[in-house]
Amino acid sequence: MSDPIDPGALDAAGAVDLAGRPAAPPDARQLLARAEELIERRRWKSAEEVLREGLKLEPDNLDLLTELARTRYAQDDELAALQLLRDVMAKQPSHFEGRYLLFHVLTSVGELAEAEAVIIELIRECPGAPGFYASYARLMLRTLNFDKARGLIAEALRLAPDSRDVLQVAALCDLVVGRSGRSGGTAGDANALRRLLIDAPDSRATLHLVINALIEQGRLREAYRLSKDLLRSQPDDPFALGRVRALAGEVHWAMRPLWPLQRWGWHAAVALWISGIAISRGLEKWAPDWTGLFLAVWLGYVVYSWVVPPLVRRWAAR
Predict the structure, then answer these.
(1) Spelled out in words, what is the top-level CATH class assigned to the domain 24-125?
(2) Fold agreement between 24-125 and 127-244
(3) Which pTM value belongs to this model?
C-alpha cells in the first residue's frame, strides 16, 4: 500500500491525483486563475512568475498579457506595462480590461490626452459604469478642470451612491475643488483629508499631482492652501513641510506686487520690458514731464522683482 499523500505539501507543479500518479500540468487558463488570486493578495512577483509560465504555453493570450502588465504597473514599471498593453491593443483594440488598465497607465506616465480618449470611449460603451466616471473625474482633477470633475463625480454618485471607490473620489473632489474658492483650511478639512488618505492611499498621488499642476499654472495661493491641508493630515511628512515653506514665500504679502510675474513667468517679464520701453518713448514724445517719474517707478519695480523674492524665500525657509 502506498504512503498517504499530504496535499498541503504540494504545489500545482508537483500535484498528484488520488492514485498517486502525477497530475496533468496546469494549462494557461488555470495559471491565469492562480495569478489573479495572487494579484488580489498583492503578491506581484509571484503572480508575474505564474503569468510568464502561462505565456510560455500561450504567448498570444491577451488576458495573460494584460495581467502581466498589471503586475509591472503595480511594481512601478509603467513603461513595461505600457508596452505590454500596446501589444494587447494591437492584437485586439476592443479588449475591455486592457483598455481600462491602459487608461491608468497612460495617466501615470502623463499621456493625459490619450488617457482621456480611452476613458471617454469606455464610458460610451458602458454609460452605466460609475467607476469610469470616478476615474475620469480623478483625471480632470489632475488637469485642473474642476467643473468637469464635479459633474463627473455627480454622475458617478447618481449611479452608485454607496460605492466606496466613488465616495473616495468624491471626497477628494470636494477637498480639492473646495480649496480653490476658500481662504483657509479648517480642522474638519484636515480630518477629512486624513481619513481619505488612510482609506485611499492612491489619493495622495493625485493630490500631489494637483498641487504640482497648480504651481505650474501659477495658481500659487490655491496650491499653498491645499498643501497646508495635506501637511495638517501628515504633519511628519518632510516633503509636505518643505513644499509648504517654499510656497509660503511665494504667497507672502511682499510678493503680491509680483503676481503677474508669478502667474505668467518669463512671458510677463518680456512684456514688462517691452511695455516699459514703449511707454517711456511715448511719454518722451507726448508727455516729457512724466517720463522721469515713470522710469523711476518702472526701474523700481524691476529692482524690487530682483531683490525681494530671494529675501522672502530665505525668510520662509527658516
Answers:
(1) mainly alpha
(2) yes
(3) 0.63
